[in-house]
Amino acid sequence: MTAGGEVVVRLTGITKSFLGVPVLRGVDLELRAGEVHALMGENGAGKSTLLKVLAGVHRPDSGQVEVAGRPVVFSTPREAQEAGIAIIHQEFTLLEHRTVAENVYLGREPVRRGQVDRRKMEADTKELLDWLGEDGIDPAAPVSGLSVARKQVVEIVKALSTDAKVLAMDEPTAALADQEVELLYDLVDRLRARGIAILYVSHRMREVFDLSRRITVLKDGAFVTTAPTAELTSDQLVRHMVGRSLDALYPDRATEAELGDVRLALRGAGNDRVRGVTFELRSGEVVGIAGLQGSGRSAIARAIWGVEPFTTGTLELDGVPRRVTDPRAAVRLGIGYVTEDRKGEGLALRQSIRDNALLVRRAALPGSRGRKRSDLTALLESVAVVARGEHQEVRYLSGGNQQKVVLAKWLAVGPRVLVVDEPTRGIDVGAKQAVHRLLRELARTGVAVLMISSELPELIGMSDRILVVHEGAIAGELPAGASEEAVMGLATGHGIGEVA
Amino acid sequence: MSVVQQKIEVARGATGGRSRRFTFTPTVTVYLALVALLVVGSVLVGVQGGVLLDQGGILNILTRSTVLGLVAVGQTIVIVAGSLDLSVAYLVGLCSLVAAETMAGSDGMMVPGVLLALGVAAVVGLVNGLVVTVLKVNAFIATLGVALILRGYLEENYTGPAGSVPRAFQHLGFDRIGPVPVGVLLMLLVAAAAWWYLRRTRGGYHTYAVGGDVDVARLSGVRTGRTIVIAHVLCAVAAGLAGVFLASRLGSGAPYVGTDAGYDLESIAAVVLGGAALAGGRGGVVGTIGGVLILATLDTIFDDLAVDPFFKDVVRGVVLIVAVALYARRKVSRRSA
Amino acid sequence: MNRKWSVVAVAGLLAMAGCSSDLPVDTGMTGTTGASKDAGAKSEFFDQARYEQQLKFRSTAPEGPADKPWEQMISPAMVDTAKLAKPGGGYHLCFSNASVDNPWRQVGFKTMQEEVKLHPEITKFTVLDAEAKDDKQISDIQSFASQGCSALVVSPNTTATLTPAIEAACKTNVPVIVFDRGVNTACPVTFIHPIGGFAFGADGAEFLKEKVKSGGKVLALRILPGVDVLEQRWAAANEIFAGSDLKIVGVEFTDGDAAKTKTIVNDYLQREGQIDGVWMDAGATAVAAVEAFQDAGAPIPPFVGEDQQDFLRMWADQKMTAVAPTYPTYQWRTPVIAALKVLNGQQVPKEWVLPQPKVTQDTLQSFLKQDMPPLHYAMCGCESMPGYPAPWK
Amino acid sequence: MTTPTTWRPRLADGTAPVLAVLAVLLVALAFTGPAYSEPTGYLALLKRAAPLVLLAIGQYFVIVSGGFDLSVGSLVTAEVVIAARLIDGQESATGWVIVLLLGFGLLVGLVNGLVTTKLLVPSFIVTLGMLLILDGAVFLWTGGAPRGALSPSFRVFGRGGVDLPVLGHLPWSVVILLVVLVAAVLFMRGGTGRTLVAVGDNEKAVRLAGGRVDRLKVLAFMLSGLLAALAAILLGGFAGVSAQVGQGLEFRAITAVVLGGVLLGGGRGSVVAAAAGALTLEALFSLLNLLGVSGALESAVQGVIIIAAVAYAALGVNTRLRLRRRAGTPEPAPRQ
């Protein structure tokens, strides 16, 4: 395969940092008409930020953006849009209470004789939907009534409707079921055939190898390589992405002597997202949960925490059956949960480090006198938060330090079980190691740790055992040090070792 | 996504489709409530030996809706945009004065008077909008602040009614075409214009988008600041028009004609009663007019029943809370369905 | 769009012949002149002729029964009402009230309701309360047009703004009776009011002129600017103070807020060291003003209050030197009486001026009613009514 | 924590500006009014400001947890009118009526809170409805105008004072104010208080941390109601019965809180700053009065300062961030 077509977009030496934390360090990227170009990298490698630079959401600190050979500076999304660049963001950018057509043409409504040409708008939307084979979606229906998958389709239609020359898709299959993924493939093919350049961001190896013509790899915000897909194997690709020997970076696993009694046991637990979940978690153990996004791995964690509780089966804590109906009950039983949505669910951003660290203690266990100042200070020191002082507001902290505060919040109540969901998402390498070390130290004190991560190396490096979730059920259990292929095989429903 | 979940989605989609056909949107609910109120009111008034919906009664309800309707239509636009305007009550008074003083009884000054009043209103709206978007002041505080400044100006410069409108101009306030007062037609025209703006123009589409989710709107290329400023200007112009209409009806300008009637909070109440979300992004002019008519009908019924005016306040308060609670309830049950 | 329409609406309608209008014929009296605030010494509300007339009325002997001041009239110019007469009873009396939002109007309205009960020939009494909104009162008056009123009583919310609506009501051949605040038109069959604001203001000012030592410091407390009745009170007082050697140390607006009143008086006591007299344009916050002296440990100087029970009690308890000019609430009885006179074809005065007595040290005891609410107005003329005192409590 | 923290007095974000403004105003008062050359003048100012400060503290609890309480003004009126009617001049009734008033304040707050949290009606609407209901109901009950009278012992709290050694004559309202302020500060320093602020910042995070968000919000409304009742007792005591005693107090209290740098929408601000905001407002009015500025300008000045205060806070943060970004300061460097 050769990269045909002319160069539509070229990024050179793009850098970007937030509050002093570099997120992109000199990234190059070149997109040609009619190619599917995959952008790969671990979480936190800077893919989403690069996309946002391309979309005009962020302005790069330095570096150059060229469209059709001419240097441009986008200061608003609208300017990027007008230059023919459309982005499908990871988070939905739909207005729930507006119709499909209104969402698709938001900001670019066709106008005829002074008023929005509703008929044309709906007809055009209909045409695009038909073209995608999605004739079940009514352009005049409000988005709020659509399923997640259909909302994704609307997102794609919204991007397409701009007559984009470049379409960037950030994890477009994350929320899609398998058959919908097939449709997406089909769709991507057609777009390519029309001469549209597609920047495809995904974690899923199979998709990348199926679809893309070239692959660009980022690591820790830096450009690693751009190579034709045909010239890469999945092993090489992983090496590019990880770029280092992993094992040495993770703390030692638990020895048999460090493992204690069964702390948490689930037997046949289920709700409307997961079913028949059965496993045990021993004191001192770090157990990983792997699975694709939407597989139900987070649903298990959230059920243990009581956000969307189990409706069937039993949950035992230290041998005693318990009913966890809401987070408060979970917290009071000694179950902690480090959420994947740090800013939305984990922290009160305008409050001080101290107040956040004491949040759980105060919220769930009122009456227990707050720790002495020195205790809290010691706690914050033990998680190694770097800050001006404990009265600094957490919104001014980097992601890594914020995550340490979240951990401190749970440590302050001495949990028996700690569930951590994507504990290192969006934080830099140094902080990652600190978080890993902390989790392992915590386990050594007898806490049972359940860890969810979509970063396989991390999961494999940290876990004493790995549970793999597929389609709402546990597909299998792997021992420490299992291969990525083994995990991916189970996670994609193919069985151990089968990976595309 | 699991197979199980997918089935749920399918099932949900199906019920969603069906229920959409049958659900009462807030707008429908408002008008059903209005009809129910008219029926109950007619019976109650009938029992007392009166008639609620004779020509006089209808005229009464419509006349009472005029000024509040004008203000509330404007308020709808800012609330849909996710903002709020607490300065409208003083603005109504100010514009009645500007109009009446400019006209000063002269026929020739009618058009300049109206234009000047609306111009002043637009400027005040522009200030509101700029304070909200450029100075990033919360709309509640921004418009409360502007309201206080207007109040200071009025108190400093006026002690009572001032200016006078020519007789010709008073036709606006007192004439009827058949049974319908001109003022009501004016209000309905403004409502129709606002409806057209919100439902038919890009500006209106963007207003809903900004109120629904300002970040999504910005990502989609909407000029959010400009949209909010325009909403404030339109709201102020509608309030200005209410002031002009009152000048015509009162024969002069009156500084406190807007605040005595509490048009600031009352217009917000009418908009919310009409099914708009205070957070923005939902609601519309049609619902608002329904809300206004409900308030006017309540007033008329109470007058016919000779109810203590203090009791009216109690009922208004209860109606407001119950209505919004019902809207909130339905939203929750739909979400959990 | 909007702008264009308002113009089109007006212009179009003027041209339209077939449309109906509730707009009254031009009497050349619509609107008022600008009422912008004047910083000058003499208030624009001061009117030498009316001032002199009111002062004269105070000493004019009224016609009518002495024990029923609400039926008395001063210098009446009677008009014939035969063409408005509808003898036979079964009357539907309609009343457009400005509001019931203060105790004075509450007491008055109660009194009016009791007065109506005294007359069996009134079979229906309909009241519309405008809740202090000019626009609503205009609508209210319009809506009475379709309600078959035998007579219409109006207590206008604002003089200037209600004039057109009342002119319109006059055209319907229903007798219109206006009381309390007036309107800028002569069309009502009678306009009922006590002597007026100039007399009220003068009563208090003359009292202070007499009781306060020469060169004494007088503080004037007013409720709010712009209300004609209140402006006249101050204009008259100002005129009299100008002709005295009293020193007016301050003229302040209290908004009728007792706390603010106390604060103001306190500030003046601190600033001036001593206040020798207090003039007020209304008694609502008189007690608060007296308390400010008590709280500051200062002697209570001669005071001008009003006929609220709380002030009268304070006056008696503290053995104050005081006077209480009144704006009698018994005037609420008169419109009902006048309406019946008109409907029976009897003559009424074109302007029915009621006597406006003041409560003095001599008459204080007879107006003190310990069991009445604190904000009850003593000059209600209601003590002899059958239901007294229950409705007023 | 890798940075050793030495304890030093600290001010919550937004507190410093209002304290500075207050200090300037107090100095200006001293130069303008002879009464302010000695402590009694300031004591009188405190006494006058006490009800508004109490209302501002109550409003603070609601605002910082993410709500609005528009009902406090009419609640104050209602409380005074209820007190007058129930006490009806009898000394013996004073005690239980005061208890009842405080209870009524709590009840109104409870209803506001429950409707907000359980029926999911925005607090702006709930308390607007409550404003209408209270306004109407209380006069419906008394027939349009206040009835009865307050007893002298009821009025002691607003009028009287206590003679203390050293301090001299201290008005009761100042004593009550100080007690409430100290209690409020202690409450806000405690776990419940901090969690209340966190609710205003990120309700979800608190709920997921096991906090009872609804209860905390209801508590905030109840405290606001309780303090409104207390303010009513002081106002009624100070000036006696009046039908308009509470008029406009809700907006004034909100203004005071905002002036204190408290963020509308919740999550930021200190109770001391809110109280200082109220005091600043009163000091400003006193100064304008002394300078002979007309009452009309008072409201205009009030309007300008609240816009300026909020704009300063909103733009201040942005500007600070921008400056930091421009300077390229890396993540808060440990200062050692």
Written overview of the protein:
The complex is a heterotetramer of chains A (500), B (337), C (393) and D (336). Helix content of chain A is 33%, strand content 25%. Chain A is built from 18 helices and 22 strands. Chain A is globular, with a radius of gyration of 24 Å. The two termini of chain A are 19 Å apart. With 337 residues, chain B is an all-alpha fold. Chain B has a single domain (2-6, 64-336), classed as ABC transporter involved in vitamin B12 uptake, BtuC, CATH 1.10.3470. Chain B has helices at 3-22, 26-47, 55-80, 88-103, 110-133, 139-157, 167-174, 182-200, 202-212, 214-219, 224-250, 257-260, 263-273, 285-304, 309-336, and strands at residues 175-177, 180-181. In chain B, a hairpin with a 2-residue loop joins strand 1 (175-177) and strand 2 (180-181). The two termini of chain B are 19 Å apart. Chain C is of the alpha/beta class and 393 residues long. Chain C is built from twelve helices and 15 strands. Residues 1-18 and 27-40 of chain C have low confidence and may be disordered. In chain D, strands 1-2 form a two-stranded antiparallel ribbon. Chain D has one domain (4-293): ABC transporter involved in vitamin B12 uptake, BtuC (Orthogonal Bundle), CATH 1.10.3470. Chain D has 336 residues and is an all-alpha fold. Chains B and D meet through helix 6, helix 13 and helix 15 of B and helix 5, helix 11 and helix 13 of D. Strand 1 of chain B pairs antiparallel with strand 1 of chain C.
Number of domains of chain B: 1
Span between termini of chain D: 12 Å
Please report the total strand number of chain B as a whole number: 2
The CATH C-level name of chain B is: Mainly Alpha
Approximate shape of chain B: globular
How many distinct helices of chain B?
15
CATH domain fold name of chain D: ABC transporter involved in vitamin B12 uptake, BtuC
Q: Write down the overall geometry of chain D.
A: globular
Enumerate how many helices of chain D there are, as a single number.
Answer: 13
Kindly name the structural category of chain B.
mainly alpha
User: How many domain units of chain D?
Assistant: 1
CATH topology of chain B: ABC transporter involved in vitamin B12 uptake, BtuC
Q: State the order of secondary-structure elements of chain D, H for helix, E for strand.
A: HHHHHHEEHHHHHHH
Average pLDDT of chain D, rounded to a whole number, is 86
